[in-house]
Amino acid sequence: MAAKASRKPLSRQRVLAAAVGLADAQGIQALTMRRLAAELDVEAMSLYYHLRDKEALLDGVVETVIAEIVAAVGRLEANGGRTDWRTRLRQQFLTARDVMLRHPWAPVLLGSRRTIPADVYTYYDEIVGTLVAAGFSYHLAHRALHAFGSLPLGFAQELFSPASAGGSMEDDAAEADAAAMAETLPHLTAMMAAEIHDAADPTLGWCDGQVEFEFTLDLLLNGLERLHG
Amino acid sequence: MAAKASRKPLSRQRVLAAAVGLADAQGIQALTMRRLAAELDVEAMSLYYHLRDKEALLDGVVETVIAEIVAAVGRLEANGGRTDWRTRLRQQFLTARDVMLRHPWAPVLLGSRRTIPADVYTYYDEIVGTLVAAGFSYHLAHRALHAFGSLPLGFAQELFSPASAGGSMEDDAAEADAAAMAETLPHLTAMMAAEIHDAADPTLGWCDGQVEFEFTLDLLLNGLERLHG
DNA sequence: TGTCCTTACCTTACATCGTATGGTTACCTT
DNA sequence: AAGGTAACCATACGATGTAAGGTAAGGACA
Description:
Radius of gyration of chain A: 20 Å
Order of helices and strands of chain A: HHHHHHHHHHHH
Number of strands of chain A: 0
Largest sheet of chain A: none
Number of helices of chain A: 12
Structural class of chain A: mainly alpha
Strand content of chain A: under 5%
Oligomer: homodimer
Helix content of chain A: 55-70%
């Protein structure tokens, strides 16, 4: 069959790349199995050989976008020499924003996903590492992470919704071997440990949505009050 | 027919209330026309007498949630006497958060909607009013609005995505008669006017996503730097 | 060389979804 | 009694995700 012979074979990567392209071009609602398959010159069911179902497709799509951010941020680190934590984080967040602006549908999608790609944790681990290296306590670094909210990734959902205000970050992480986690996410691990240890009421867990929310709120209100004078 | 006679007639309000309830109980993905109809002991097509289509349903659902926030905030105003802008906004945002925690699906839904309910503008108008009454310039109030991001409503999308970074707020507003808008949204109207007038490059429009983003970023970084000492 | 297995893709079919079209029923007005 | 209107329903269609099983191509091994 000429058509079949003349095209490159599918692969998870190729399918995901096409999916991102389709969403960019036609919007996320145009990302259906049949349309994606057509884009790849293939029948819909063929996609199921490379992806379990549509949920897996969407997971893969967010994963791809996050990878794009991580790569862009990594390029920053490689080029720019050492700088202070402020300009460093500033550049990182602006870079992330740049990427997200290229995929306007991504923040909402990311916010609506149930499971968070591993790369996100790596990314946040780096942020905590930057802060701690600059002399921040783990406690303040933790608060900072919440305060940043949607800035690092263009969406705030995970730190807001009940699914993880008291939850998903820890649960997801708990699935992995604690030792392995300490290796790949050293700063986050240390931060969690420090926070649990310091907590006045350890039964609350180490993330209390209400407390974080109020901290962020006051941080902003203080800043505005100062500008207002 | 006994079944028909024994039940209350439908209405837009009743349908929307049932929709919110269904989303609360079973998640937003369970909100289908058929399931919603079943919940109301009615056939799916009957819903179309009260709502044009599913988009209108979803618009109505966000509208309902926003109304719940506005009502709760209004109750605050009625009870508590006059207080300074800080505690006022603080209470408002915490109240909004309370409501959103009761509808965990709402922020994502709100963030993915194309049109923003009018109540949102009313709500933001009040916030600007509070700031200006406290002596803030329109310029700083504008920046503050962006900086608050997801705090007032639990989602940050509208201020982030290209759809409105340079757009939707103004476009939507432009639809309405300018005079009517000046009446119902006096502070927002004044703010827009002041900002357009002050803008160095008026061709940019009065919302420049990049500038707002960096302002928020620096506000947070400054605050953290100060806490870090 | 012939048999068989694995990989990659396809055909068919079905449940569920939103909704266009066109009834049908109950009630109100006159 | 006649007609009109408001509210609801039956049927049907196209789109979607996907289960179940089929098929073609290439290598493994005899």
